[in-house]
Amino acid sequence: MAGSAVFLFPGQGSQHIGMGKGLFNSYSSVKRLFEEASEVVRKNLEKLCFEGPEPDLARTDNVQPAITLVNLACLQVLREEGVSPSAAAGHSLGEYAALCAAGVFTFTETMRLVQIRGAAMQEAAERNPGGMTAVFGLDKATLVAICEEARAAGSVEVANHNSPAQVVLTGAKEGLQKAAELAKKKGAKLSVPLKVSGPWHSRFMAEAKEKMRQVLAGCAVARPSFPVMSNVTAAEYPNDPDGIRGALVAQMVSPVLWADSVDRLIQDGHRLFVEVGPGKVLAGLMRDINREAKVVGVQQPDDLSGLRALLV
Predict the structure, then answer these.
(1) Residue 295: in which H helix or E strand, if any?
(2) How many CA atoms lie within 13 A of 302 on its CB side?
(3) Would you tell me the crossing angle of helices 94-101 and 60-80 to the nearest 10 degrees?
(4) pLDDT higher than 50, residue 308
(5) How far apart are CA 290 and CA 311, in angstroms?
(6) Which of 191, 201, 230, 261 is catalytic?
(7) Per-residue pLDDT, 272
(8) 3 state SS of 178
(9) Which helix (H) or strand (E) element contains residue 296?
(10) Percent residues over pLDDT 70 in the chain
C-alpha cells in the first residue's frame, strides 16, 4: 500500500463541530494526540472540536490548532493502517500538517507553530478588519485586473486560486464589495462572502508574516522525506531549511496556488488522492480541476476500508 497516494491536508473553512470524534473514539493513539496537543496550545481541543460552540471554533486562533490536530490525527490513523504518501500538499494552513507528515517539523513543533500563526493572524485582522469573497466563473487573470480596478474603493487581492471555477478574493470590505460588482458585470456566475474573521493572504497580514519569520527562524527544520507542494510556487518545497522557512513566511501574504499545485501533481502521474482531515472541500475542488483524479476522505474508521480497496 505504501507510496501509492498523495495526501491532501485541508485548511480553514473545513472545520465542523464533531470533527475527529470517530477516530478519537476508535484509536487510543488519537486520544493521546489530542491530550498532547491540548497541553502544547493550552486549550481544551477535545471540547473545542467536539462541542464548539461554532463561533468559538471558527475563531482563527482556535481553528488553526483544531484543524491541524484533526489533520494529524487522520495521518496517524493512516500510518497505523499501513498507508503512506508518495507526495503531499496542504491548503494554506494545511501546509503545516503536510510538512509535519514529511518529517520537516515534529508534531509538538507543528502544533506550537499553528497556535502562534493563528494568534498572529487574529491580531492582524483585529487591527486591519476585512474579509474574503469566493468568485465563481471568472479566471484568475480577469480577477487580478478587477482587483486593480476596485482598489480605489479599498485594498483587494487574489487570495486563493482554488480551481478553474473558483477564485477567492481578500481585503477590505469596501474593496471586496466593489470587486464583486465588477465581477458580476464581467460575467461571474456568483460571488459569495466567506465566513472568515479576517483578510487572509493579503497585505494586511504583514505583521503576522513578520511574527512567523521570527518564530520560524528559531525552529529546527528537517528535509522533507517526500515531495510537498508549496502554495506560493506550486512547485515542490526546497530541501534547505531556509528555503522552507521563506516559503512559509511568504505564504502569509501570497495567493494560494492550489489549482496549479494539484495540476502539477497530476502531471507528475498521481491519480489517487486522500483528503487527510475534516470536510470534503478539497474533494469538491478536485472535481473542477480534474475529474479523472480520485479523492478519498478518511474522517471515520469505516472510510479506511474503501481506501484499502483502491490501494490493492
Answers:
(1) strand 294-297
(2) 2
(3) 30
(4) yes
(5) 20
(6) 201
(7) 94
(8) helix
(9) strand 294-297
(10) 99
Select which of 38, 92, 155, 197 is catalytic: 92
- List strand residue ranges (DSSP E) for 15-148, in order: 85-90, 131-136
pLDDT digits (tens, 9 = 90+) for 207-236: 999 999 999 999 999 999 999 999 999 999
The CATH topology of domain 5-126+203-311 is Malonyl-Coenzyme A Acyl Carrier Protein; domain 2 (3.40.366)
**Span 175-212, pLDDT tens digits:** 999 999 999 999 999 999 998 889 999 999 999 999 99
* Whether 92 is catalytic: yes
For the segment 157-173, what is each residue's pLDDT rounded down to a tens digit? 999 999 999 999 999 99
The letter for the amino acid at 227 is P
3-state secondary structure of 90: strand
**130-193 is a CATH 3.10.450.50 domain:** no
Catalytic residue list contains 201: yes
Q: Cα(27)–Cα(121) distance, rounded to whole angstroms?
A: 32
> β-strands 85-90, 5-9: how paired?
parallel
Spell out the domain ranges in the chain.
5-126+203-311, 130-193
Cell of 29: 493513539
C-alpha cell belonging to residue 107 = 508534531
Q: How far is CA 250 from CA 105, 127, 155, 159, in A?
A: 18, 20, 19, 13
Position 3 pLDDT exceeds 60:
no
Contact in structure between 40 and 111 (CB atoms under 8 Å): yes
